[in-house]
Amino acid sequence: MGAIYRILNTITGKMYIGKTLEKCPYTRWKEHQRNISNNIGCPALRDAVNKHGINNFRFEVLIICFDEDASYYEREYIKKFNTITPNGYNITKGGEGGGFIGKKHSDETKELIRIRISQYFKDPENRKANSNRVKSFYKKEGTKELARQRTINSDKWKKAKEEGRVGSGKRPPTEETKAKISAGLRMYNERRRLLNKQV
């Protein structure tokens, strides 16, 4: 799973929006701090931290998402919060490849991600906070349509449509379900036949 985060300057209100595919999003914050201390990384963010002090910056996870959607959400949140310099600390529109792009998680890492995400969403406050972030994001004009177009143009959706798993709003009935429906119809018709005889 991926995450979109922001680094907020609590003095000026300016922000940096970023994405990470790390199993723990806060690892990315530590990486930012190391980069700043080594005089590398995003120059706008680095200069601001050096000016105001690291203690005046707050790291917050905005949304948890699938890896393949991280670039999309990063671009949208950069637009939503208007964080391109000089309004914020982003120097690009987002969506560029990071160090993990083109690679794949090992099965062990996937399991760790699954466990961490599961633990995160066990907390009712985390579930509510993430739900509110998503709702707020989709209230933006045009966002729902963009997300819908992105979904229906994806390979996964096209494959699911070919298999009949989407389109009608539900999965096709299983053989067991079909048998139950058939038995129910037979029973219904038999009862009607008996009632008609009595009349």
TrEMBL record:
PROSITE patterns registered for this protein in UniProt: GIY_YIG
UniProt-annotated stretches for the region Disordered: 151-178
CDD domains: GIY-YIG_HE_Tlr8p_PBC-V_like (cd10443)
Domain GIY-YIG: 1-91
Basic and acidic residues bias (residue ranges): 151-165
GO MF, one annotated term: DNA binding
Coiled-coil regions listed in the entry: none
UniProt xrefs under SMART domains: GIYc, IENR2
Pfam family, one: NUMOD3
Family in the record: To endonucleases of group I introns of fungi and phage.
Name of this chain's protein: GIY-YIG domain-containing protein
Organism (species): viral metagenome
